[in-house]
Amino acid sequence: MVQLLSPEGDYGVPAQYAEYGKYVDALTEADFLQFYKEMSRMRRFDNEATALQRQGQLGLWVPAVGQEAAQIGSGHAVGKNDHIFPSYREHGVAITHNIDLMSILKMLRGVNHGGWNPNETRFHLYAIVLGTQVIHATGYAMGVNFDGKVATGNPEIDEAVITYFGDGATAEGEISESFLFAAINNNPQVFFCQNNQWAISSAVGTQTRVPLFERGAGFGVPGIRIDGNDVLASYAVTKKHMDDARNGAGPFMIEALTYRIGAHTTSDDPTKYRSQDEVDYWKQRDPIVRLEKFLRRQGIQDSFFEQCDVENEAMAESIRQQTFALGAPPIENMFQHVYSEAHPLIEEQSAWLKGYEASFGDNEGGH
Amino acid sequence: MSNVVEMTIVKAINAGLRKALAESDKVLIFGQDVAELGGVFRVTEGLHAEFGQKRVFNSPIAEAGIVGTAIGLAMRGYRPVAEIQFDGFVFPAFNEITTQLAKLQNRSEGFLTMPVVVRIPYGGGIGAIEHHSESPEAYFAHTPGLRVISPSNPNDAYWMIQQAIKSEDPVLFFEPKRRYWQKGPVDLDNPPAGMHDAHILRNGTDVTVVAYGPMVATALQAAEIAAAEGRSLEVIDIRSISPIDYATIIESVKKTGHLIVAHEANVSVSVSSEIAARVAELAFYHLEAPVIRVGGFDVPYPAAKLEEKFLPDADRILEAVDRSLGY
């Protein structure tokens, strides 16, 4: 397992992972501080969203507490021409790519099903049916290959694709099929598996009998396990393999071993299936605390951490107010973009509903 | 003068695909055995040799992967034409088609389009083993976000495959496999207006018979026999199962007052169920008899030695005509 930052905040590169060390060497203090800012922002956002759900402002929340290092580190390793295919818990990766967090909250409030522009952001839509995003990413990466945008040697041209999924999703057939399609096409693609050890109530042993990072090998996709609570390992290992993918090395799998501190969603009750001792063990390995220890050893002062708290509180207040302000979407939204071209049933039913709603007049509280 | 040539449905789809490949380098053809072999029915014969491995290539035997990668390629700007080898093998891809392909335009609020064509040879009558004779079109017609069409003759096959590839929406293209070798004229210059328009193939006054795909030839045969018995059947090939051109059907029913809907698929919760319900709503006072559905029985597609009794034939359509006129 690649670990560059120990739980105590000590940085060191074991000899067998020397190839990854140079990616950390290239980082500046500003980068480390940025990692911390975004990890703490992700945590604050997550806690605020849970609170909003508890207050009835969101239909559901999907917490990612504990997975900040895996997401912020790998997200920063994605290049400006690369493409990201997330699952539905990648709020931190979204932060690294400046996705408006309200887009995510709108989904969980029930305003829409996503709706940000994946072409512009290169951060594709959340995928709720497990594994579907992985085969889409695989097809997309085949297209990158067909376009000749791999291994040209020109960093302005070359592109790679990263796809995120969890330990639970690895059991889905589409993920095995993705390994195969990616391997036979030598795709410029990184499979980033966050093994948070729980798929709702099913332990990872339900999904696999071999370490997950070995899952792709039989298909021709080599892999490595990293400490998913180590932001520097997450960054360095992802950066190297995205660079390699862009340069034509083919697909690679990264298993980030982490832990889902929170529930699967706000509808879940983890006390039914796992012990408090286990959760406490992982809380001791909190990725944000680990990075803070490292930064303090680098001489970073209280004022920086205090400033982060101030900014995060402002962010939380802002999304809170924006969530309150989200109304219901216009009724006609449900008929839009079902098809790109005209469709008689859509036109007929949309017109009917409009007439039906209008028949109640203003006194009926119509929209 | 138009440029009209005689060809089979197989050759017509092949010619349509060739034209689409030549017109846009974004068009890709893939699926099982579509490359050197040209597909098990030879629909893609010669295309690999002509356009090369980057445009026409074999996929692993993984239907979810075939449709899933088609979706990813469409996101990248390609216009994939994926082949599912047989009707009964589409189900591993059912999730990708119904939860992803059908919904991504809506989910993305229009930022994505899904110009994907899924070609599926379908239907029975070829003496095949299990899973090679099915008619699963209703599953897809039931799913919002998909377009579902099925040509019945070479001219439609040639043009509708090209129209499907040009569509920004996902299209399921059902090919009537037992009619693959049926010959007919193809007008290479003048396309039919749209891929969703119903065509009246035979004018009549007594009973309207609606069919699509492989059952169109059977309906025309029934009309021929009925004519000899002094009954005039109007035969409509709806060509499109989603959406359905109701205007053409309703106009005919207003004239005849009698409607039979025929297809190979089992009738319960089928395309004919939907047409019957809609026509009852839209033309209730014009109907002189209930709409009668003629189709397969609600059993798994039987072993080949029994398929002749399972599939509707001209006599089963004529029996329905008798019942309809007997009201």
Short description:
The complex is a heterodimer of chains A (367) and B (327). By secondary structure, chain A is α/β, with parallel strands linked by helices. Chain A folds into 2 domains: 311 residues, Rossmann fold (3-Layer(aba) Sandwich); 34 residues.
Features:
heterodimer; A: 367 residues; alpha/beta; Rossmann fold; 5-stranded parallel β-sheet; two-stranded antiparallel sheet; globular; B: 327 residues; 7-stranded mixed β-sheet; 5-stranded mixed β-sheet
Describe the protein:
- The complex is a heterodimer of chains A (367) and B (327).
- Chain A is of the alpha/beta class and 367 residues long.
- In chain A, 44% of the residues lie in helices and 8% in strands.
- Chain A contains 13 helices and 7 strands.
- The radius of gyration of chain A is 22 Å and the shape is globular.
- Chain A starts with 17 loop residues before the first helix and ends in a 9-residue tail after the last helix.
- Chain B is α/β, with parallel strands linked by helices and 327 residues long.
- Chain B has 12 helices and 14 strands.
- Chain B is globular, with a radius of gyration of 19 Å.
- At the A-B interface, helix 6, helix 7 and helix 8 of A face helix 3, helix 4 and helix 5 of B.
Largest interface: A-B, 41 and 43 residues
Strand arrangement, major sheet of chain B: 3-2-4-5-7-6-12
N/C terminus separation of chain A: 57 Å
Q: Which secondary-structure class do the elements of chain B indicate?
A: alpha/beta
String of helices and strands of chain B? EHEHEHEHHEHEHEEEEHEEHEHEHH
CATH architecture term of the largest domain in chain B: 3-Layer(aba) Sandwich
- Radius of gyration of chain B, in Å, reads 19 Å
* Top-tier CATH class of the largest domain in chain A: Alpha Beta
Approximately what portion of the residues of chain B adopt beta-strand conformation?
Answer: 15-25%
The end-to-end span of chain B amounts to 48 Å
Please report the first level of CATH classification, the CATH class of the largest domain in chain B: Alpha Beta
Largest sheet of chain B: 7 strands, mixed
What's the overall geometry of chain A? globular
What is the typical, i.e. mean, pLDDT of chain A?
96
Q: Which stretches of chain B are poorly predicted, pLDDT < 50 over at least 5 residues?
A: none
The share of residues in helices of chain B is 25-40%
Mean model confidence by pLDDT of chain B: 98
The CATH superfamily of the largest domain in chain B appears as Thiamin diphosphate (ThDP)-binding fold, Pyr/PP domains
Q: In total, how many domains does the architecture of chain A comprise?
A: 2
Number of strands of chain A: 7
